[in-house]
Amino acid sequence: MKVLITGISRGIGYGLVNEYLERSDEVYGIGRSCPFDIPFYKIDLTNIENLYKAVEAFNTDFDLVILNAGILGEIKLMKEWSVKELNDIFMVNVWANKVLIDLLEKWAKKIVIISSGAAVNGNPGWGGYALSKCVLNMMVSIYSKEINTPVFAVAPGVIDTDMVRKVISAEREKFSSVERVDKSKIELNEGVRKLVKLFDNLDKFESGRYIDIRNVEID
């Protein structure tokens, strides 16, 4: 199986590459850095005008595309977010993925974008990140009605990554969700195995669906 993954230098992306390589799948990567010996195109995803170069460089079909790259931003009250800061989050979490869907839908059998429970929870402190993931979910829903390639938004649950560690370092008295996030996190390898199992079973789900892995059971 050929798999393309964005944002593979650490966290969920790193874990996914490891898991697919262990299964002897053919893995490709896009992002700012790559710790693996795989076909890789180095690019800052905010450079959306040149993302087509990455797709053209591979020039191959993919069984699965996983658009994993994303940024959290700060944990702070909504009124403290500037419009520029929100735009910076949206550039990576939404617009880069929009461009990649446009470029890859003719090359991919399935496309998954990593979303978040923050997209629906509305917890204080997650402003920019939560808004971007909420928009991403709707974008996936719209694309599912406009393109032939099945596309999904998947919330991976709380996996112990640098991003989650940043969340749980926030003020617990000020942000009520921090304690819950800390208590519910699972180890990277466990979380990644669950994701890969879900990705293997995407045919059971309707294209355009937002799937929170914590709310589904996969045999």
Describe this entry's structure for a reader:
The protein has helices at 11-22, 51-58, 83-104, 118-121, 127-144, 162-168, 177-184, 188-200; strands at 2-6, 26-31, 40-42, 64-67, 111-114, 151-155, 210-212. The protein has 219 residues and is of the alpha/beta class. The protein has one domain (2-157, 188-210): Rossmann fold. Strand 4, helix 3 (83-104) and strand 5 form a beta-alpha-beta unit. The chain is globular and about 50 Å long. The mean pLDDT is 92.
Structural class: alpha/beta
How would you spell out the order of helices and strands?
A: EHEEHEHEHHEHHHE
Q: In the CATH hierarchy, what is the architecture at level 2?
A: 3-Layer(aba) Sandwich
CATH fold naming: Rossmann fold
User: Mind describing the biggest β-sheet?
Assistant: 7 strands, parallel
Could you state the CATH homologous superfamily? Answer: NAD(P)-binding Rossmann-like Domain
How many beta-strand elements? Answer: 7
Oligomer type: single chain
Radius of gyration from CA coordinates: 16 Å
Mean pLDDT: 92
List keywords for this structure.
219 residues; alpha/beta; Rossmann fold; 7 strands
